[in-house]
Amino acid sequence: MSAEADPIADELSELIFHVAGRLRGGFNAAAAELGLPPAQALVLANLSAPTPMRELAEWLSCEPSNVTGIVDGLERRGLVARRPDPADRRVKHVVLTEEGERGQAELRARGRAQAHALFGQVETEKEHLRDLLASVLAGSPDPCKSLRR
Asked: Do 46 and 148 contact (CB within 8 A), yes or no?
């Protein structure tokens, strides 16, 4: 069956986009409650190790100059700090501060609550859905680098 004539794949794609939209909307609302723009909240929620600014730009699919503004905002709030790379002092790594770790924990807790509310309706099928989505992801290349290491 060609990709053009697969109505089930089309419907799956549409449903996944809708679910992702709901998750994104809830995440953005949680970010707003914490006074963070979505891009800053995205970095804060996913930063788990010292990460070079250029890698953040690749992960966010934006220009390095945009990352500078995002990190500037997080740094002004005391949520992250820039640290020079020990091997190349020209490279700056973004690291969470203690306040950033607390903010990250709050964003993640709100995300878990939202996911529970969204996926609680399919409690008996949740593991199966997870396994199916993991299988889809495992079978296709990931064009994005992850901040999680």
From this structure: yes
Interacting residues of 55 by C-beta distance below 8 A, sequence separation 6+: 145, 147
Query: Which of the four pLDDT bands, split at 50, 70 and 90, describes residue 44?
Result: very high
Give the domain extent around 118: 9-135
Q: Full-prediction pTM beyond 0.85?
A: no
Distance CA 89, CA 84 (A): 5
Residue 77 located in a structural domain: yes
Does residue 142 form part of some domain? no
What type of residue sits at position 115? Answer: A
CATH number of the domain where residue 120 is located:
1.10.10.10
Rounded (5°) CA angle 97-100-103: 160
Asked if 113 and 105 touch (Cβ cutoff 8 Å), the reply is: no
User: Is it the case that residue 45 has pLDDT exceeding 90?
Assistant: yes
Q: List, in sequence order, every residue forming a beta bridge with 95; answer none if it has no partner.
A: 81
Query: Residue 49 carries which side chain, given as an amino acid letter?
Result: A
How confident is the model over 62-83, as pLDDT tens digits? 998 999 999 999 999 999 999 9
- 81: helix, coil or strand? strand
Q: Which residues is 106 bridged to in the sheet? A: none
